[in-house]
Amino acid sequence: MDRHDYGAALAAIGARHEGPFPATALILGSGLGRFAEAMKVTAEIPYADIPGFPVSTVAGHAGRLLIGTAAGLPLAAMQGRMHLYEGYPAARLAIPIRTLRLLGVERLIITNAAGSLRKAWGPGTLMAIRDHINLSGQNPLAGPNDDRFGARFFDMSEAYDSALRARLAVAARAEGITLREGVYAQVLGPNFETPAEIRMLSRMGADAVGMSTVPECLVARHAGMRVLGLSLITNHAAGIAGHALSHEETMAEGDKAYEMMKRLFLRFFREFEEESG
Ligand code: HPA
Question: What is the predicted pLDDT for the residue at 99?
Fold first, then answer.
């Protein structure tokens, strides 16, 4: 979006949060919003109170910005996110990420629920995102470039930061959690894919498929933030699953794997805090 005025959003957040803003932000995907309970929350701001923030319409996406700490590490968390399939112009998805950037966020951790294209990676698998394929047909950066954040053309060779991913792998090992690594393909949705689409994605080199994450990653990379992506596999993708897919299954599997994800992140944050603090 061309030269959007972030002043009102920054003022709304500033009125509810004093002191330095966390350098790390976490976007909580489907079924993972409960992570708020693992945080010491000092401010909780509904998106509706932040001018320009789109308000999510999906069940399981609460729509609040949380500020506080997790395992001692200062952290901002977006509880609930907006999706392209909700019909927002892609550029609007840039606003929350750019607001975080202006507040001083340097690292963005993006989580999502995803379908697995690998038979051996069933529901409950955690997959660190090594790279993505944007099949949504949209891009939040289309339109005039906002050069306050970054250059028109920018590099995506390391969209997902390998150093952050390595640290996540260390935390997983320490917790005895199996962490896979793979390529995430984003489709527009809102339907789950057809089996033919899943076969296509598989041949393209995707390991998981979902309906989010890529817009946030693009906006963050444009603005020079480091990105860590984590997919929680909630189902085998269409044609691999052997049964019909549903949002209820996604939410239920998210719920089951939640404790594992929480443990992984708390260990990751604690070690981060100890090293930097
Ligand atoms: N496809 C797309 N998005 C998803 C899926 C899926 O199978 N599971 C969870 N989100």
Answer: 97
